[in-house]
Amino acid sequence: QVQLVESGGGLVQAGGSLRLSCKGSGSIASINNMAWHRQGPGKQRELVAAITSDGRPTYVDSVEGRFTISRDNAKNTVYLQMNSLKPEDTAVYYCYAKVRVWYESLVYDYWGQGTQVTVSS
Asked: What is the pLDDT along the chain (121 residues), one digit of tens a residue?
């Protein structure tokens, strides 16, 4: 089994910053792509940022220049540094990882439980 555990969400004023972390544990042989998604009130879940195993990031246009995704492969951890937060960034943020497990030659998709980010105006 593989678990992804997020931390770092909370309440912040507009213009503030938060840093989310997501640590993987369990039967992990290696992790391919990792990403952060979010789901705001009454909205569909959307991809916010993704990062390849060799550290190449991509971002949705609405967060480009404000958010930074990074990862520490030795710790099976992905981060999302969020600066200049806006009320429209309010959402539950979910960590995603494509994991190769050690006990078989297959790759599976895993999700964290989500962490709430609330930005007040």
From this structure: 899 999 999 999 999 999 999 999 999 999 999 999 999 999 999 999 999 999 999 999 999 999 999 999 999 999 999 999 999 999 999 999 999 998 888 899 999 999 999 999 9
**Which H, E and C letters describe the chain, residue by residue?**
CEEEEEECCEEEECCCCEEEEEEEEECEEEEEEEEEEEECCCCCCEEEEEECCCCCEEECHHHCCCEEEEEEHHHCEEEEEECCCCHHHCEEEEEEEEEEECCCCCEEEEECCCEEEEEEC
Q: Which residues contact 4 (CB under 8 A, 6 or more apart)?
A: 22, 23, 24, 95, 96, 97, 110, 111, 112, 113
